[in-house]
């Protein structure tokens, strides 16, 4: 696991500043210029003239591919097994993959996830253009993936809606991506937002969708990793942001699982790290979300062998979203975590797995016959 003291990945805030021309002063890398990829915008992934497979489409905002937007590429596919190769650039659009487009793969053709950015700025309280109301949390998502078997590599999914720009808006949830399909895998991706950044969910209460996030980065403030999926986060970096609209703690919560009561597996965070740009102890590790649509939910989160930075309130790392569903009655547990945010000062507030229990809190136990890490 990388040292927790290493400089954090290029954050959403840095991306926005770089876009405004401040990258040189901040020492941050700006998004690549149109000519940065030369005559090979798709790198080792071929081109429209030399396709990897007949089911490969090439997307380039500068017109060197089959289409210029991600949604246009999705719309051009039918059935299962398509691959989209995304050239470096910023794709300002909303994207939706419906249930029928299964086994789809998106490949970022840059050197890393910061080179390929899909971003938009809807929030839950943003009015719809047709006057039919506001988007709501689900509708705010920049990217929505409902199909099974989806894989993404080296892509940034972002929502750059900011509270400070909309002081009169009460619905401040602004989702970067909502993913609900089974066997959904993200490798070396970034998820950038503030509230409700990464919505790891399922298509129905009775469906226990499995998701895998490896070597990913997610940032935000309120409940920024949330939902009812069975999700494994391995070698990931979670970063809590500072806030200027609040004068005291807590600023927010990293995880807000809403696991169905019948689901034996919720969120598993393993060999990861949590850092912060906020003051020490201004964040909770998690709170349980029992949504109005499922009052039988029993949120489940296990965090193991993970470095918790000083931004996490070690004395009281969990909180209630509703007093009717206290966190102590949910399925929260930890195992062999390290760092100042993992210090056990009040054992009653830090439920720990036994070594025997930890044997079943593994990626293999959570994901069953699906082994997405073998291709990482």
3D architecture notes:
The radius of gyration is 20 Å and the shape is globular. It has helices at 12-19, 23-26, 70-75, 136-139, 355-358, 363-367, and strands at 56-59, 83-86, 89-92, 95-97, 105-108, 116-120, 143-145, 151-153, 156-159, 177-179, 184-187, 190-192, 198-200, 210-214, 217-220, 225-227, 230-234, 237-240, 252-257, 267-270, 273-276, 283-286, 300-304, 307-308, 331-335. It has 6 helices and 25 strands. With 376 residues, the protein is mainly beta. The two termini are 16 Å apart.
Helix content: under 10%
Strand order across the largest sheet: 1-2-5-8-11-14-17-20-23-25
* Assembly status: single chain
Helical segment tally?
6
The largest β sheet comes out as:
10 strands, parallel
Offer a quick outline of the entry:
With 376 residues, this protein is mostly beta strands.
SSE blueprint:
Elements: H1 12-19, H2 23-26, E1 56-59, H3 70-75, E2 83-86, E3 89-92, E4 95-97, E5 105-108, E6 116-120, H4 136-139, E7 143-145, E8 151-153, E9 156-159, E10 177-179, E11 184-187, E12 190-192, E13 198-200, E14 210-214, E15 217-220, E16 225-227, E17 230-234, E18 237-240, E19 252-257, E20 267-270, E21 273-276, E22 283-286, E23 300-304, E24 307-308, E25 331-335, H5 355-358, H6 363-367
Parallel strand pairs: 1-2, 2-5, 3-6, 4-7, 5-8, 6-9, 7-10, 8-11, 9-12, 10-13, 11-14, 12-15, 13-16, 14-17, 15-18, 16-19, 17-20, 18-21, 19-22, 20-23, 21-24, 23-25
List keywords for this structure.
mainly beta, disordered N terminus, 6 helices, 8-stranded parallel beta sheet, 376 residues, 26% strand
